[in-house]
Design goal:
The structure is a single chain. This protein is of the alpha+beta class. Helix content is 37%, strand content 18%. Helix 9 runs antiparallel to helix 10. It is elongated.
Length: 484
């Protein structure tokens, strides 16, 4: 199957993504309202944004109006009280907060909320004395969590409709420690339905500016993490965005608001169309993680400086005690004429990516089980003209963990209706490693896997001799691939 060739080397794109991760944060719109994408490789043809943190903008169904409206992703979402949010339609800030309007360094932006009061409370919740940023309202065209990459297309995480987009639009962006920009497009969505939602939105973005001002996200977290892989970038995003989501909920509790970004992202992550699940993942899982490990936002800094989780598996399963990536020796070569190794697309995806794939094509109960026990992985890229193909070698803590992933992944292939699903095979390499092969049948049939478990050499042979036995959905467990 022909795949669009990556026009800009992905290695360069990952480098750009690192710059994005270091520069600013945003919140997505509900389908989108609160999502940031400073994450794995920025796709070609998309403008690389400067902000470090962004807030997903609210989808129509998340406007606290209780109404059900089609969202930008084409899905309906009903944002009633059962979603953990309630409708508040006060006409002015004083009514919404129950307080006199305060004065401070933030100029009046015209937003129906007391910006200085929101900032002061957010800063107090984080135990910081950081200076307040400027706040402006502008047009924002940035989308977070875009998945327009060949391997993601094989995984069924892209939008195949003509002119369709992936990722989630941004409601607001923290462009750095001194600047927050609110998307003018969401102004009417919030203003007409919930003044309190503006407060929550700003608390999220102010948390990002404080993360940067205190050096937590840039100096500490970015220094600790190797931001050269999708796994490490998603870990960074989950901790940065999750910290802001958790802080926004602490703000809501302090103001006695029946609003919750944690509850909203939980709903959105489960209901998002396939091409948006990846975008909402860091918000949802990051928020859940901090809600599990912290009692108050004052502990946020320590997670960035002292108690940083080792992998996205630790974010997904904080109760699990074996989340440090295992040492593996994986390699790949091509001996086939016309097919070249595309090393710029090599990557580590992590447990969170497994969860995203399973959530998109199975359900969250399956995703929880299949993502637990991840030990390490590596994607190897191959290219033949316009054809892209990949070998995704995954390693697991136990044979049962490997079985769980292999069975669950195979079952997602039978439930998918996109053409890409027919170009995927699953092979075993020992009892603790599973290799997913994506590409034309001639490519998959020519792969030989030498070794097993933590030591694998994957070779694209000159001839298609069926060296690898693929693992059918109904095969007995722990079937081992024939090695070349």
């Amino acid at each position: 199957m022909n795949r669009r060739r990556i026009r800009t080397v992905v290695l360069v794109a990952v480098g750009l993504a690192v710059l994005v991760a270091m520069a600013g944060c945003s919140m997505t719109v509900p389908f989108g309202d609160d999502t940031d994408d400073s994450g794995p490789a920025t796709p070609d043809g998309t403008e690389t944004p400067s902000p470090e943190a962004e807030s997903p903008s609210p989808s129509a169904g998340d406007r606290d109006s209780g109404s059900q409206t089609e969202t930008p992703g084409g899905a309906d979402s009903d944002s009633g009280p059962d979603d953990g949010e309630s409708t508040t339609e006060n006409g002015d800030t004083a009514e919404a907060t129950g307080e006199e309007e305060t004065t401070g360094p933030i100029s009046d932006t015209g937003l129906p909320v007391d910006e200085n009061r929101v900032y002061n409370l957010t800063r107090d919740l984080l135990g910081s004395d950081a200076d307040a940023p400027t706040v402006s309202v502008e047009e924002l065209n940035y989308r977070s969590g875009e998945t327009d990459r060949p391997f993601f297309e094989y995984m069924g995480l892209t939008n195949d409709t003509e002119g369709g987009s992936t990722g989630a639009a941004s409601a607001a962006v923290a462009e750095g420690p001194n600047s927050v920009v609110v998307n003018e497009d969401v102004l009417g969505q919030y203003e007409n339905n919930s003044v309190d939602r503006f407060g929550l939105l700003l608390a999220h973005e102010f948390a990002h500016t404080i993360q940067m001002e205190e050096g937590w996200s840039r100096a500490e977290l970015a220094r600790k993490l190797d931001l050269s892989t999708s796994e490490s970038l998603m870990l960074y995003r989950s901790l940065v965005e999750g910290g802001a989501v958790f802080t926004a909920d602490q703000y809501a509790d302090e103001e006695d608001l029946e609003l919750s970004q944690i509850a909203r992202f939980d709903r959105q992550y489960g209901a998002a169309p396939d091409e948006q699940v990846y975008a909402y993942a860091p918000y949802h899982h990051g928020g859940q993680y901090f809600d599990t490990v912290l009692d108050a936002a004052t502990g946020l800094g320590a997670v960035y400086t002292d108690d940083t989780p080792a992998s996205t598996e630790a974010v997904l399963h904080p109760e699990y005690n074996d989340t440090e990536p295992s040492r593996v020796s994986f390699s790949a070569t091509s001996n086939r004429t016309g097919w070249e190794r595309q090393r710029s697309t090599d990557d580590r995806l992590g447990s969170l990516f497994v969860h995203v794939v399973m959530t998109a094509h199975a359900d969250r109960a399956v995703a929880e089980k299949a993502s637990k026990g991840w030990a390490n992985d590596k994607v190897f890229g191959f290219e033949n003209g316009s054809n892209s193909a990949f070998a995704w070698a995954t390693h697991w803590d136990t044979a049962d963990d490997a079985d769980e992933f292999a069975v669950a992944f195979n079952r997602t292939l039978t439930s998918r209706t996109d053409e890409s699903a027919t170009n995927i095979s699953v092979a075993r390499a020992g009892n603790r490693s599973v290799v997913v092969l994506t590409g034309p049948r001639t490519f998959r049939n020519a792969i030989a896997i030498d070794g097993e478990n933590a030591t694998l050499d994957i070779t694209l042979q000159a001839d298609s001799d069926g060296s690898v036995d693929t693992w059918a959905t109904d095969s007995p467990s722990r079937q081992t691939a024939v090695t070349g």
